[in-house]
Design a protein that fits this description.
mainly beta; globular
């Protein structure tokens, strides 16, 4: 990414991904859940289709880039992902970084701007 752009907080909760993402090996979507269960309603605003980075901030303050590309909210507000601009069909998100974060509490946000794929 060239320069950081505007950041949009999407939600706060325990990060996870749908079982269908594992079966397809796409790993393109994540969702958040409340500490005591139930989905977190994501703040989608007018982000759909914008290019940038999907990121998570751990409670320790460490920030992790989960993926780069065009942001999508396929089910309106339950999950979010980024479609990479290089047309790959699997591993849209960086599972090496995401897997250890599974079910950990994070702040999820999207940073607008140029991606490395552009």
């Amino acid at each position: 990414m060239d320069t950081p752009g505007k950041r949009h907080e999407i939600g706060f909760g325990k990060i996870n991904w749908p079982e269908s993402e594992e079966k397809s090996r796409r790993y393109g979507l994540v969702s958040l859940h409340k500490i005591k269960g139930g989905p977190v309603r994501l703040k989608v605003a007018a982000l759909e289709g914008k290019s940038g980075r999907l990121m998570a901030r751990l409670l320790t303050g460490k920030e992790v880039v989960l993926g780069e590309g065009k942001v999508i909210f396929p089910d309106s507000w339950l999950s979010v992902g980024v479609v990479p601009l290089d047309d790959r069909q699997t591993f849209w998100l960086n599972m090496r970084l995401l897997e250890p974060m599974r079910k950990r509490t994070v702040v999820l946000f999207f940073e607008e701007g140029m991606t490395a794929d552009q």
